[in-house]
Records
---
Amino acid sequence: MHSFGYRANALLTFAVTALAFICAIASFSDKFSNQNPSVEIQILNINRFKKQSHGNDEVSLTLDIAADLESLFTWNTKQVFVFVAAEYETPKNSLNQVSLWDAIIPAKEHAKFRIQVSNKYRFIDQGHNLRGKDFNLTLHWHVMPKTGKMFADKIVMSGYSLPDAYR
Amino acid sequence: MDWQGQKLAEQLMQILLLIAAIVAFVVGYVTASFRTMMLIYAGGVVLTTLVTVPNWPFFNRNPLQWLDPSEAEKHPKPQVVVVVSSKKKSSNKK
């Protein structure tokens, strides 16, 4: 019974088991990396602020995003997805999250960046509650490891507000 | 492949793969390169396959010693003694 095929099969089984183990350890080793990402977002300009014909408020703004996400990258990180969301409360919804900008960071070399962009996705309220509204800008990130569990975290920055009148 | 060879092949396979896995992990972790880890491990698996899967001559160093035919004839097989129970047979006929 100790044939060529038997030995090849036993080897393959053992090799894949060992591979699963080293991948698990690689994933576990991520826990020991200390992550201290930082981000700073400024609103450079409110380009447009109006009420749409069907009654929803729409804002167009220019953001200055400076972020250092290098510490999110370990040897087991495939890529990091980041997005900036405007978060605010209205009488209708206890939490509104509107994604304004996102990006996929493929490598550590690109994880420290500063860009000035107008919102990539339209900032439209569900209603017309945006005049003079205070809101948070939150940087969310999802770390996609090569092996192991994907995880997400965020930094909330408060103290942003919209003008009191349409323009 | 003889019995000793089979044991050797099995042990070699496990030891080589474990060494490959440990070396791959350590090197990968130190150089912070997942790709290096995978390449080293793949190399280790290929090497282990080449060493332990084919029936190399060194797995056949302890061939089984069969008895010579003449030796076998001197010690004949014990004859199977068939004990027929007459009682049972008669009961069956009824």
---
Amino acid sequence: MAEAIQKKLKAEVEKYSQMQKDVSKSMASRQKLETQLTENNIVKEEMDLLDSTNTVYKLIGPVLVKQDLDEAKATVAKRLEYINGEIQRYETLLKDMEKKSDQHREVLSSLQQEFQKAQGLAVGKV
Amino acid sequence: MAEKGKMDLEHLGGVVRLREEHEKVVKDCESRIQHWKKVSGDYEALKDRLETLPDQLSYDIMVPFGPLAFMPGKLVHTNEVTVLLGDNWFSKCSAKQAQKIVDHRMSYVTSEIDDLSKTMKNFEARVGLAKDLETMSTTKGEYVEIREDTGNSDTAATKGKQRVAHKPNSKPKLDAVLDLEEEDEENEENEENRNGGSIKGIMSKEELWARLDELEKLEELQDERDRLPDNADINGEDTSSSSSEEEKEGDAAPPVNGLSLKPSWSSVPHSKAPPSGDIKEDDEEEEGSCLPTIYFSHTVEPKKVRINTGKNTTLKFSERKEQKEHSKRKKKNGHNGHSHHELHKITTPADIYRLFVDVKNGEPIPRKSILKSRSRENSVCSDTSESSAADFEERRMIGRSFSHDEATHSDTSDGITEEDSPTTVPLHPASRFEAFSGTVVEKDPMPSAVPHLTIAPPALPTILERKQEEVTPDVAPPQQPPKRVSKFKAARLQHK
């Protein structure tokens, strides 16, 4: 009885830790996105400071590729959009994970209680 | 105390940890601010350089060549810089533009620093609080902690009192019971006074009672007047004075079951305990004096309904009450003036329970189970309904005996019992029964009562009528519709 519960408990704990890993992973990526967002924002603002006489380059690998200013601006805007969408996606994902991990936690606590009970019973029997 | 110390320790640990965390945050903020300050300084230098760079067309400089060597070189295109905008975006711009960009970055950096310093201050304050807490809980020095143990709050902080459901067997509300008792006493006193002897020592209240009686009479009179039109139908049967009714009862009952109403008389003393019967009594009394017929219509209807439904709800009570009422009625018929206080009391179903209060040793005791007694009777009724009237009667007897016991208790407590009955006896033909033990009497009334099982307390007075009707079932008055010809009747007929 106690062993079965222990097995269950172990599996559950593994699941839970996996979940926690996922959560922290997505959290980190979200953070990264956040910094990218601020960076791109700055880029956009600074591009607004430039005018058509300036040439804009994009570093692709080892080379600087010349780009049109307007094009660059559009690209940056698109990038911003994408980053925003990505952040939103991660937000919902995190919420979902939070819920799931909560459930896991509940299951874990109940399992723990059961396990303790079973242990206590076993001890009592002995 | 040990526990408390432990708690303190835990508490202390929590506080310490809280403080540590806060300090961590503060340190983090500090380092970040440091970083941003450095960045800001760099930008400051950059800005200075950009300002002076375009001043000359070219500069002789030592160009770093790898990490170890420098080479002499020349800086040309002094007004032309390539700026990393971020995210691998570069742009070639003039020194002036570069300065603008630097300014923009600087503003961002300063805002960042401001934010960080704000959060740092916030957390510093929290650290201070945590420290204070720590010192407070460790050293009972200048700080005194005011602590109130709330304990396990079973009485959760709810507004007002918690509401508690009435327990089925709990005593009825005292006030209501008291009122009923008083009424009972009243009646008793009245009876006593009229009888010329006061068995009970409530004499002190006599005056009060008398006054109450007067008022009651007035009320009753009015009620009767109001009801007169309604009762007219019933009058045909009931028109006879109360005394005549009583006689009828006595006469009528015997033919039906071979048992006369007399038992009811014997039970009279019991009736006092339950106050429910008073109202009707009053009415009857008045009827006897003024308009005898008024009440019958009322009572009849409830009976009918119950019988028709075939449900035994409150059967026992009703029977009992009927008996009591009968007895009271008879008594009261002889005497004038009674209180019908109870009438107004029955305004809610809960009141019915109050009505069914037994008085034992002068204390009101809620009837244990109307339902139980009822259930018993129910079973009986179902059985007897059409087949075995004899069994039915027997069972009845049992039930009666129970009720009788209760009644006797109440009687003893009241002190008015058989003595009263004899006085009333002359009025009623059933007087001879009084000699019998209570049980005997009850048996007899049972059969008669059977048909009336369903009578509600207010309907009490109708018993006599019913009996009459039952005796002459075919001639049932217009008021008594086919309902009257219920199982009970059938059973009775069979019995005959």
